[in-house]
Amino acid sequence: MTGTTLDDYTDRYARRVRGMTASEIRALFAVASRPEVVSLAGGAPYIAALPLDAVGEMLNKLAADQGATTLQYGIGQGTLELRERICEVMALSGIDVGCGASPEDVVVTVGGQQALDLIARLFLDPGDVVLAEGPTYVGALGVFQSAQAQVVHVPMDADGLIPEALELAIAEVARSGRRAKFLYTIPTFQNPAGVTLTEERRERVLDICERAGLLVVEDDPYGQLGFDCEAPAPLRARRRDGVFYLSTFSKTFAPGLRVGWILAPHAVRDKLVIASEAQILCPSAFAQAAVTTYLSTMPWRQQLKIYREVYRERRDALLDALADYMPAGTSWTEPGGGLFVWATLPDGLDAKAMMPRAIAARVAYVPGTGFYADGTGTGNMRLNFSFPPPERIREGVRRLATVMEQETAM
Ligand code: PMP
Predict the structure, then answer these.
(1) Alpha helices (H) in 33-110, listed in sequence order
(2) How many angstroms is it from 112 CA to the middle of ligand 1?
(3) Percentage of the residues of the chain whose pLDDT score is greater than 70
């Protein structure tokens, strides 16, 4: 180390670097990963539920038997084999040939995160507005802020994004003379709120965006992780024009492989590939082969069931513990799938200010402010239930409730 600080470079940074701030979540991970801390802060899938020996054997074979292709460069759009498999996966949730889904229009990405970055590269100029649920996915905020766009939040309730609020936000942006480019939405088992946009609202949201000339960026990493019932069909299954569908194998298989995708309107597909080639040349051939082989030779539907069962049990453990321990005045969402519960604290409690005391009490969560671009969310926190086992979840909530009670007494 030379002792050089970032500040020495301040005058040289590009303007967009001003929008780059450290994510609160990343900063938390170091403390939250200490073994004595019950971390309800992460968002990691429970990888131990995978048949790791069989996956290991499969990966071995891919290198040993097919290394000449799997360890070589590939094409920017991603392999045809994987894009075909992706179409089969999307068809399960209703995005099928009937609504124009084809391997031709799929672009494989390095996780859903690169998909978001590509969308930003293609559509956002500095000063453009992105409409997004409030709260929204922290990684998307990072991408939009790096693109020097402004995020305008649209509130949600237990039924997801509120259509009337979307109309108001669109009108407000137009009145201020700015240009909203797209609605970024996670309609199903939302991160961080855990809520799902109802059938009826899906149609209304699409109509509103169409009338306003807004593109829709539908981010759907969790749609296949429903516990109680099937999720409503994605927006892309209902409308093809102007809807970009993003998803990933991070939650249904393994995030370490970093494989996601975009299903794009045909006209945009080439631009996405060009932008992606400029960024990464091509997605990892090895990771793509791993996902393709997993989907074609291993019981992945059964694995999805296992993930759902593990998460359902953990979601129930979290909801039961919240009901048993949380002080009066606390409320929370009841997700039908996904990985997260969003809690609202009693009046006067500040989740961010309370964090050091929570860590001292050996429990971690993510303060709500991390999920807003505008500093709101002080009275909220995101709680993850996919990673810690049920008894740890219960213990974590018990610790959290004690901290909150002490805080109220302060
Ligand atoms: N979108 C949402 C809503 C997410 O929650 C995540 C991961 N937490 C991602 C995109 C990106 O995931 P990945 O890059 O692992 O596919």
Answers:
(1) 52-70, 80-92
(2) 5
(3) 97
Q: Is 191 in the pocket of ligand 1 (CB under 6 A)?
A: yes
Identify the sign of the CA torsion 41, 137, 17, 113. positive
- Contacts of residue 233, Cβ cutoff 8 Å, sequence gap at least 6: 93, 94, 95, 202
Q: Which residue has the higher pLDDT, 311 or 5?
A: 311
Evaluate if residue 26 carries a pLDDT over 70: no
5 against 225, higher pLDDT: 225
- DSSP tally for the chain: helices H, then strands E: 13, 14
Before 192, cis peptide (omega within 30)?
A: yes
Pocket flag, ligand 1, residue 134 (CB < 6 Å): no
What's the 43 CA to ligand 1 centre distance in angstroms?
A: 9
ipTM of the complex: 0.99
Q: Average the pLDDT over 357-384 and give the result.
A: 95
Q: Is 221 in the pocket of ligand 1 (CB under 6 A)?
A: yes
CA dihedral 152, 158, 164, 165 (to 10 degrees): -20
Nearest to 368 by CA among 354, 382, 356: 382
Model confidence at 405, pLDDT cuts 50, 70, 90, reads very high
Q: What is the mean pLDDT of residues 272-286?
A: 98
Q: What is the pLDDT of residues 112-129, one digit of tens each?
A: 999 999 999 999 999 999
Closest atom, ligand 1, to C-alpha of 137: 3
- At 181, the amino acid letter reads K
Question: Residue 250, SS3?
Answer: coil
Q: How far is the CA of 253 from the centre of ligand 1 (A)?
A: 13
- Give me ligand 1 centre to Cα 403, in Å: 30
Q: What mean pLDDT is predicted for residues 161-170?
A: 98
Q: How far is the CA of 58 from the centre of ligand 1 (A)?
A: 25
- Residue nearest to ligand 1 atom 10, measured at CA: 112
Question: Taking the C-alpha atoms of 256, 112, 192 and 317 in order, what is their torsion angle to the nearest 10 degrees?
Answer: -40
Ligand 1 centre and the CA of 304: distance in Å?
A: 17
- What's the mean pLDDT in 299-308? 94
How many angstroms separate the alpha carbon of residue 325 from the centre of ligand 1? 30
CA–CA gap between residue 156 and residue 380 (Å, rounded): 14
DSSP notation for 231-244: PPPPHHHH--TTEE
Atom of ligand 1 nearest to the CA of 190: 3
The verdict on the CB of residue 223 being under 6 Å from ligand 1 is no
User: Does 252 sit in the ligand 1 pocket, CB within 6 Å?
Assistant: no
Tell me the mean pLDDT in the region 219-236. Answer: 94
